[in-house]
Amino acid sequence: MSRPKAPKTLRFQPAGGESRSLPVGKKQVLNVERLAHDGRGIAFLEGRTWFVSGALPGETVQAQVLSARSKVIEAQTVALQSSSPERITPACQWAGQCGGCTLQHMSHSAQIAFKQANLAEQLGREGVTPVAWAEPLVGPDFAYRRRARVAVRYEVKQKHVEVGFRGLASTAIVEVASCVILVADLQPVFAGLSALFNAFKQPQALGHVELFSGENKALLLRHTQALHADDLQQLRDYCAAQQVQLWLQGIGEPQPDQAGQTLSYSLPQFALEIAYQPGDFVQVNGQMNEAMIAQALDWLAPQADQRVLDLFCGLGNFALPLAKQVEQVIAVEGVESMLVRARANAAVHQLDNVQFFDSDLSQPLHDKEWAKHSFAAALLDPPREGAPVVVERLAKMKVPRILYVSCNPATLARDAALLIARGYRLQKAGILDMFAQTGHTEAMALFVKK
Q1: CA distance 44 to 48
Q2: Looking at 236, 256, 276, which one is the last position of a domain?
Q3: Under-70 pLDDT residues of the chain
Q4: Domain limits for position 187
């Protein structure tokens, strides 16, 4: 009989010189003081900082160690000894196990307040305060996600296909039978996947699944080898019954199972329909996306005779609504495949006053022809890394009004400090409730040249 493995431990040297070890799985009672920027509770004990998933400020919890490094411990709440008044019962029975919704134990109103405070704290660290705080832009707290990636794995020993989402702080799959975050028309599609895949003759060919909802629904299956003919037919029958397009991806780009399949989402307020393909960046919250665009245009206040610059334009999510309001839009994106579809989207809507350019916006931009124009306003929606090169260039161009949409308050704060140092003021800022039930904070900020 083989000897069982000893628990994984972290060695450290506490005050006094005594060597102690902290095993993964150890349980510890903690008093939670505040929240980290990602929504985990923070507690302090014996010179260590604990980040505790599922805990709220003011609570006393029993937490189990997930990982440990130096004096930073990651842990998960396993029992409550005292509760915060902001604690609620999660709507999903897998909350706390699944890594998707990390704040379902917190009331929605408390989530909004936490995210607004997070934005204020990050800006404050850079010495930045807006002239005015905007009211949070709030959307639905459930059934909002129109795009999702579903984890799928075939367990050879059990001869069972796991279908669900990655676990909290883990690569393990939590098998989830239903998801309250998905939009209503994707919920039955998701719910039937486990039975479907467990009936496959060759389930080891399965990779992962992506679900999409918009003007039409779609299921993308990533497969690691050719699908068995019977399995493919089962998949086609399932998609037909669910009225879902089937897309397949082996080696190379995703391909529609049938000719003529298209994906798109609508912006009714702007009378626009934006076509896309699996792999393109699309905001997962459709209702909040349209509200975000409307607020951005309201804050930017573009005029009919102006030229506006849209950076990180993607499929034209902001550029096309802008093109309906101004004389000219210059739109810039670094992903050529999305630019192709952005140009096609503009052509479908006969918007010939928007021009698209391919540029890597993380690199110097002084030699770009589009950057030599003057603009009345600029809008940017960068990735989590932010856009220091872009804001430096916009400041040199002396663009009067800059609207910044951010998915990372820390890099927004850094870039805000750069703009303020170059003669701008932060006129207005506020959060966007794009990802309810999670710790992700999205924000919008308007900068005006002094």
Answers
A1: 6
A2: 256
A3: 1-21
A4: 147-256
Task: Give residues with Cβ within 8 angstroms of 86, minimum separation 6.
Answer: 56, 106, 107, 110
Phi, psi of 396, rounded to the nearest 5 degrees: -65, -30
Helix (H) or strand (E) holding 291: helix 286-300
Q: What pLDDT, in 10s, does the model give residues 403-443?
A: 999 999 999 999 999 999 999 999 999 999 999 999 999 99
CATH number of residue 163's parent domain = 2.40.50.1070
Shared-domain flag, residues 313 and 395? yes
State the Rg of the chain over Cα: 24
Same domain, yes or no: 308 and 229: no
Find the catalytic residue in 92, 101, 313, 407. Answer: 407
Paired residues of 48 in beta bridges: 45
Say how many residues make up the chain: 450
Question: Is residue 407 among the annotated active site residues?
Answer: yes
Q: What's residue 70's pLDDT?
A: 85
267 exposure class (CB count in 10 Å sphere: 0-12, 13-18, 19+):
middle
Q: Tell me if 98 is assigned to some domain.
A: no
Token pair recorded at residue 331: 């739109």
In a domain, 377, yes or no: yes
Exposure of 237 in the CB half-sphere (CA atoms within 13 A): 10
* 418 CB burial (10 A radius; 0-12, 13-18, 19+): middle
